[in-house]
Automatic annotation (TrEMBL):
<keyword id="KW-0812">Transmembrane</keyword>
<keyword id="KW-1133">Transmembrane helix</keyword>
<feature type="transmembrane region" description="Helical">
    <location>
        <begin position="356"/>
        <end position="377"/>
    </location>
</feature>
<feature type="transmembrane region" description="Helical">
    <location>
        <begin position="328"/>
        <end position="350"/>
    </location>
</feature>
<feature type="transmembrane region" description="Helical">
    <location>
        <begin position="213"/>
        <end position="235"/>
    </location>
</feature>
<feature type="transmembrane region" description="Helical">
    <location>
        <begin position="298"/>
        <end position="316"/>
    </location>
</feature>
<feature type="transmembrane region" description="Helical">
    <location>
        <begin position="177"/>
        <end position="201"/>
    </location>
</feature>
<feature type="transmembrane region" description="Helical">
    <location>
        <begin position="256"/>
        <end position="278"/>
    </location>
</feature>
<feature type="transmembrane region" description="Helical">
    <location>
        <begin position="46"/>
        <end position="69"/>
    </location>
</feature>
<protein>
    <recommendedName>
        <fullName>Quinol:cytochrome c oxidoreductase quinone-binding subunit 2</fullName>
    </recommendedName>
</protein>
<feature type="transmembrane region" description="Helical">
    <location>
        <begin position="21"/>
        <end position="40"/>
    </location>
</feature>
<keyword id="KW-0472">Membrane</keyword>
<feature type="transmembrane region" description="Helical">
    <location>
        <begin position="134"/>
        <end position="157"/>
    </location>
</feature>
<feature type="transmembrane region" description="Helical">
    <location>
        <begin position="90"/>
        <end position="110"/>
    </location>
</feature>
Length: 403
């Protein structure tokens, strides 16, 4: 007789947990400290904020595409993890409020927003910026941010809401609705994330452009998403959750995806560099040139070593993908270097004479990180942590019995 797997773990995050409140408190302290920094160095405030905002928003966006791909492919392997990803993406409509400081600091962050650059009679007139002004202008920039977050917020909220509804009703017909939302959602996601990456990071240097930058931003964000998932699962299992539901075979799946997107990241990052290298156009190569001098080159070489070579060589081993100590170490390493890479992309625009670290880089990260994960746990407490009535759940659980 076949053994039908059952869930013996509690599906509820402890209602009396103080984790969300503690994270909100840490986030508030971090943001207040960063806001105080604004009065000492406004430019540093906005750049530090942008780096951390991009870091955490990228994680939520990676969670959203993971959920949509899961539905459209009718996958069963990750059903036990899907609610975690759904929870991250479900908060995107709330997270949209944190774009406001970037909109307020548009003149501090983006050189193209200065009107004198478009004045043909001005000494500061910039022909290249003027040629891009139909796209790079403050009004259209703000409109685009609204469009992005309306789309992301709707997709994340809707997919989470329907999934939770299926928990309550057991109506498997809702899986069809989830696929119908995901099918148009994937191309919309691809377009909006690409343009958002152009807006937030690439346009910091309006003379530079890369046709691969949208995919590059997706690659770095999606590679970083898997370590977040791994560390969250390990944290919750140490707290007594998921101990009999998420098993070694599921942990291996997370490690395998982590490895796969480490390779994908390396392919995309190198492809972007190679295209610019052999084209040898000054307006393109200067972007890399400025990031290979003044101390920035140490971060560039660290990306090659710690974001690709080390994770690749370690996770190449099958057993390493199931070893919790190894996965924890590599996950922490990649998240640190992920922050460093976004920092390396953005900060040379502000510190063009070399690396100058600021305490606001830390406080902005702590502030936004506390609020980001506070929202996550606050939402997770409200519903079951696993889509318990998903038709693919038995297949997912059975996998651990048959391997």
């Amino acid at each position: 007789m076949s053994h039908k797997p059952t869930i013996t773990d509690s599906l509820q995050f402890p209602a009396d947990s103080k984790v969300p409140r503690a994270l909100f408190g840490i986030g508030a302290v971090g943001l207040i400290a960063t806001i105080i920094g604004y009065f000492f160095d406004a430019d540093q405030f906005f750049f530090s904020y942008l780096v951390s905002f991009t870091f955490f928003t990228g994680i939520a966006l990676a969670a959203l595409i993971m959920v949509m791909l899961h539905h459209i492919t009718r996958s069963s392997w990750g059903v036990v993890f899907r609610r975690i990803a759904e929870t991250f993406s479900s908060n995107l409509w709330i997270w949209a409020i944190f774009i406001l400081p970037i909109l307020l600091g548009i003149h501090n962050l983006y050189h193209w927003s200065h009107p004198e650059l478009l004045d043909y009679g001005s000494a500061d007139y910039d022909k290249i910026v003027a040629g891009k002004s139909a796209y790079l202008n403050s009004t259209f920039f703000i409109i685009r941010q609204v469009i992005y977050f309306v789309i992301w917020g709707y997709l994340g909220y809707k997919l989470h809401k329907v999934s939770v509804e299926m928990d309550k009703t057991g109506d498997w017909g809702l899986t069809s609705l989830l696929r119908k939302v995901s099918a148009p959602g994937i191309p919309l996601f691809a377009l909006t994330v690409a343009f958002a990456s152009f807006d937030w990071l690439m346009s910091l240097d309006p003379h530079w452009f890369s046709t691969m930058f949208g995919v590059y931003f997706f690659a770095i964000s999606f590679q970083a998403f898997w370590p977040v998932m791994i560390l969250l699962v390990f944290y919750m299992q140490r707290k007594g959750m998921f101990t009999n539901t998420i098993r070694q075979v599921h942990i291996y799946d997370l490690g395998a995806w982590f490895f796969a997107f480490t390779v994908f990241y390396a392919y995309i990052a190198f492809s972007q560099f190679l295209l610019i290298y052999y084209a040898n156009l000054p307006e393109e190569t200067l972007w890399y040139f400025h990031r290979l001098e003044g101390g920035w080159e140490f971060i560039a070489y660290s990306l090659l070593i710690f974001r690709f070579a080390v994770p690749f060589l370690i996770l190449l081993n099958r057993e390493a993908k199931k070893n919790r100590t190894v996965l924890t170490g590599v996950s922490i390493l990649v998240l640190i270097i992920h922050f460093a890479e976004i920092y390396w992309i953005a900060m040379p625009v502000l510190s063009d004479h070399g690396i100058i670290f600021s305490w606001m880089d830390i406080t902005a990260f702590i502030g936004l990180g506390g609020l980001f994960f506070g929202l996550f746990f606050h939402t997770l407490k409200k519903h079951d942590m696993i889509p318990k009535n998903d038709p693919k759940l038995d297949d997912c659980l059975s996998k651990s019995y048959h391997q």
